[in-house]
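Reposting from the mailing list since nobody answered there.

I have sequence plus structure tokens for a pair of proteins and want to know whether others read the tokens the same way I do. The first protein:
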Amino acid sequence: MSTSVVTLPTHVRGACPHDCPDTCALLTEVQDGVAVRVRGNPAHAHTHGTLCAKVNKYTERTYHPERLLYPMKRVGAKGAGQFERVSWDEALSDIAQRLKAIAAVDSQAILPYSYAGTMGLAQSEGMAARFFHKLGASFLDRTICASAGTEGLVHTLGGKVGMKVEFFAESKLIIIWGSNSITSNLHFWRYVQEAKRLGAKIWCIDPRRSETAEKCHEHVQLLPGTDAALALAIMHELIRNDGLDDDYIAQHTQGWPALKERALLWNPERAAQVCGVPAAQIIQISREYGQAAKRGEPVAIRLNYGMQRVRGGGNAARAVACLPALVGAWRHRAGGLLLSSSGMFPVNRAALYRPDLLAGKTPRTINMSTIGDDLLREASPEFGSKIQAVIVYNSNPVAVAPESGKVVKGFAREDVFTVVLEHFQTDTADYADYILPATTQLEHWDVHLAYGHTDVMLNQPAIGPVGEAKPNTQIFRELAALMGFAEPCFADSDEQLCRMAFEGAVDFGVLLKDGFAPLNVPDAPFANGGFPTVSGKCEFESKQYGLPDHLPNYEVASSDARYPLAMISPPARNFLNSTFVNVKSLRDMEGEPLLEISAHDAQQRGIADGSIVKIFNDRGTYRCKAQISQRARPGVVHGLGIWWRKMGLDGKNVNELTSQLLTDMGRGPVFYDCAVQVSADVAKDTA
């Protein structure tokens, strides 16, 4: 009589790959080679054993029935989504041949297009950058999310640096500025709750009455694109009410006399008119912030990237980043500001990305936020060669890039050769000539920094590749070989890439054992100044950009009677950009594409709750269901995103309406600087 052998499950340490500041530590339970569960690693202090609803369902994504398992070649029209299975040899040989032919004329006609589908240093650009440097392809300016705020921080604090997130738990006044932390920064919210239990006052500044705003003591529901005006008015009140730390300003800042002069132009009444909030509320937040600091209590600002997706986004980030120095908040480990901590990580980018492979070549740069226009440009002396090939990985530009009607036209060109590395047949994959199946985080090595804490994270593969999927790194290795790239660096393994990312700065043995390794960062990094600026001070006045100021939106809704509503497009709670949209359990929770609209604006337009509406401007028309909601203030509507276009009515999503205009600094997109009109879709509702 035989007895069956029971295999005990193993637990593999990993890291969440997604575009979220939390960068959680994962434990994947594996039984007989199959991942059966993903949970948070309780040994990692920030993760605290808890994951968001999205990543809790990661096995559902990895084993999704629509997962791409084999290389696919297009057989129908671009956009029709018709493909046939081919071998890896056939796909990669043809791709290499096509790229060689284009590169023989002008390698800059080839464009990589990638962003944060994975945040890992190996699987994002670790091997891809080497490949494109050697090829001499156009550079991609990766601006689509954070570049305006990044530039603003660099020219104020000196880099993407700030306070340690865990010390928010000790703060006595917290301002959450432009962040729906409950849905997009869950573990920071845990620290806020700790501070709240200890008596901290919590403010939220956001155009939308988000889930986070509802849980805060106070909510400043300002108009989109007016954050700099509010910050300047706070400065005005700090000056008038003795809220300044004169000693810290004198020792550790630069440019205060000029900034003071500008701030004194922004009394609460002026700012109230611009921001669309009561002057009394501006006075209240200013006084509470200043008075708490004067009492020696730590005051902290959690800034996020939503507020910098407007024309003046860089100026707004600069203005807010000046505030902690004015009140001496940096003296405390629980005081200051955090937008991103990623600048604290000593990544060995030269070793990873090998810019030396350019060998003197100086390719042009294409901005990912203007891909709609750039794919449609003809060759010219100013632009250079027409784009003839696009290699897309870790991104879904047809869904996420602005003015998506033009993006679609660009990718529909028969003369642009498109290769997409993907897990699923996304909107962009529908326009590919080849789709190459990529591994998910459970199937490959990677190493991560974070932008919401200061721990390096290691991801080890928990299972083998599903189907014939390959890591991004391996796909670029094999393409490099077929292109004849003989440099030894193209043979570096994924584990070698992970080791070299922080070589000499982080003990890789600790990463292997624990899955994470904290950086040695001071608890109060700027208590005595020492900012990573040229001057070593917090620079209120930048040599490149001067003083921070309020720049009105390109599309101030009240200035054009045709389009009287401001539209922002915050992420739907159960998605992360366009990731997870096809996970049925999450999509079922989200429901369908929605436009949140105030009762006042709906009544004016004869719009009933749950009815289909048209949202439109000069760039296009988008149809979806209206939800009359207290989350929207009069004059502002919210097109929740980012749904795949193919899942929307008429095959469109909210980016049909957004523009390709760019921010004041950092060349970023202006997704939240968008004026529209909304009307009832009478034909649909009466059909």
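The second protein, same order (residues first, tokens after):
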Amino acid sequence: MKHLLPDLMSLLRTDMSILDSGLSLPIIPSSTPLADAIPLFDTCSYLFIQDDGPLLGYIAVSDVLQAMMHAHRLMEAYFETTLETAGSALTLINEDAKVAYWTTGAEHVFSISKKEIIGQPAADFFPPDRLQSLKTLYTGESVYRKQHQPRPDMFALINARPVQLDGHIVGAVAAEVDITTEIRLHQELLHMTSKVQHLEKAVARLRPNSDPFVKIKGSSPVIKQCLETIRKISTTSATVLILGESGTGKELFAKAIHDLREPQTAPFIAINCGAIPASLFESELFGYERGAFSGADPKGKKGKIELAEGGTLFLDEIGEMPLELQVKLLRVLQEKSYFPVGGTRMKQASCRIIAATNQNLLGMIARNQFREDLYYRLNVINLVIPPLRMRKEDIYELTQTFLQEFSLLYNRHIELVPPEVFKLLFHYDWPGNVRELRNVIERLTILTTDREVKPEYLPDTFTSAIEQESYGSDERVQLHSPFGPESDSTLSYQERMDIYESELLLQYLEAAGGNKQTLAKQLGISRATLYNRMKRLGL
């Protein structure tokens, strides 16, 4: 707006009759900025203008005042027209937190007239804790396209910046766009999407997905290595021992081994060895004949081994199996046969056995808590599932998957996990592994009611563990993480996350043969959501 101010030559008077007054006036060159000339009027009402030659004329303070007033009115007209043309609700508050300007758009959005609000404290009309403009005035914080609720019944996107003069904040300006209708429509869409998802799941149960790895999320090198091992394992029917900490998803990997080899009609029977009392374990595993013991079903009962015929029996937490039953399981593995409880006729075991544990079986053998011969029978091929702290580059994909699941379940719309929350997720050690991450995302989804995930929603144990670490020296973040040592420190957090997400999407798109509909289905999102995300990332 500096070009609106007059220059000296536009104010020049050439009537030299002032010389007859005999006044001694300051002389300045014609190139002098008006701002530098104005202080000279403190001692006189006129200034001579002269370059290298004779006097060009003079300027009068009265002319300067009139020119400044005209420039002020012109600037005010430009300013007001610009604000009214912007179309959004624009508010300007002064350093006393009073409303200095209120556009017609603000009148329509908030149903408050200019006459009512201009000159009044903004806090008289809105809850102070909901006023971003007040926060900007007091803290100097600038925001861009931040969602907030100026009133309980209203949603808006806001841009806010402090007004500074000579290094001091003298006010704040906020531009808001009412998105209440869009939010309500989106909530309706989310509700309908949830119904569609439930229908898709029902259809999926009737027509299972042909990809056995669809539920295993992650693209880290260690996960890729696990999947490659599964492909090799699935070419045989050999017994498999899956090793991994609690919460790593051992049953998912066992199911993938089963699905990759067996037909869709083949049963997959899972039994948790730590959840069944020792007195009932034998009858659960081998079944029993009628009249086998008091209180038994008069018709008898099939055991898990028989139910798994032609498919897979998954023995989870095999380290919890009672020692006396370990001998009988060893016979099943060696002879492929067994006797039901109370039975006299031998039955054949025609199922593949996959066992899993989170315990150190060799240590248990040394303490006489697990049979060594059974260990070697089970450990024909072993598959080691890495803990989440060793595959932190998968946290982003897992978070998005769980966020999609729980957003639909609890009817919460969360567009994005903020960078500061994601940074905490990446720096946590995850002793409970993927199960703990899933629980944390469920907690965040439940506590988030305004679509904005906040760090304080994380569990206390989570944040206390983070505080004990030094972020700058944490060497446990894997190299493929967006925050690993190889990342470009000149990029912002969001830029690094966008690069990582772009690479991940391109990798999955290539694996899907370039078919975006297939990719959207694999990611558990709609095709429109996928297109919007790729558009945002410039793909």
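Reply #1 (J.P.):
I read it the same way you do. DSSP finds 20 helices and 17 strands in the chain.
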